[in-house]
Amino acid sequence: MKKITHARDSLYPDILFHFSDKDGLFGVLESTFNVSYAREKIIGKNNEREIGVPMVSFCDLKLSELGLHMEKYGRYGIGLTKEWANRNGLNPVLYISRYSPFTDGLLSGLDSIHQHKSKLDMSGEGASISAVYMNIYNTYRFIKNYEGPLLREGEEKIENYRYADEREWRYVPPLEMPNLIPFVAITHIKTKSLKNSLNETIRHIKLSFKPEDIRYLIVEKDSDILELVEHIRGVNGNYNNETLTRLASRILTADQINKDI
Predict the structure, then answer these.
(1) Is 80 exceeded by the pLDDT of residue 29?
(2) What is the pTM assigned to this prediction?
(3) What value does the mean pLDDT take over residues 172-184?
(4) DSSP string, the chain
(5) Every domain of the chain and the residues it spans
């Protein structure tokens, strides 16, 4: 048996990737990540819950594994170090099976805690334990079905999409952050206009990084590279000439990843 002596022997890389369209990547490089509410549906055998969670999502995949992921989330991406992720409190999600009694038990338990907290709040007795209860209820923000339906705008529904293949990590703002609703009922983000309105209330919440935290930049094709370099050059104050040269050497294309890696 081979002895594991270094992180490079792991199945997981030392980088987390975030993918979007071109405008999304250029916006991230200009003003870092904006936190936004995402729809999360947890399905069990007998119970299911759907809420909106403020987050920024990443995947824990090696370059050679990115092909299918890019097809679903965009062919423009940024790879940041796990040292950066750890400094900023990112966490991998807990994947749970919809067929396991654990999932129904977890959903029922969290619902009971929420109902008990609501009763205590109404009686005026909940203030002293509110933080404790919220920390437990916070589990909702970090769980995801191992496998389940995937429905994306303009695309055919995938009935049994394996979410665990994404190896998702999330940044979720701390519960105590001012002017933040930690999670919302799905009715608050049911339409694009409702979601946009709610996201405006947390526009001040950023997930920041420094140029030295960037390990890779990914664009769709060769013709995008010069445009990306010129965009980085035009972001005032963030990227000096030395940094620009370093980042330019770390640009890969989606075509290159699919064909050569």
Answers:
(1) yes
(2) 0.89
(3) 88
(4) -PPP-SGGGSSS-SEEEEEE-HHHHHHHHHH-EEPEEEEEEEE-SS-EEEEEEEEEEEE---GGG-HHHHHHH-SEEEEEEHHHHHHTT-EE-EEE-TTSHHHHHHHHHHHHHHHHHHHHHHHT--TTTHHHHHHHHGGGGGEEESSEEE--TTSPPEEEE-GGGG-EEEE---TT-TT--S-EEGGGGSSHHHHHHHHHTTTT-EE---GGGEEEEEESSGGGHHHHHHHHHHSTTT--HHHHHHHHTTEEEHHHHHHH-
(5) 7-260
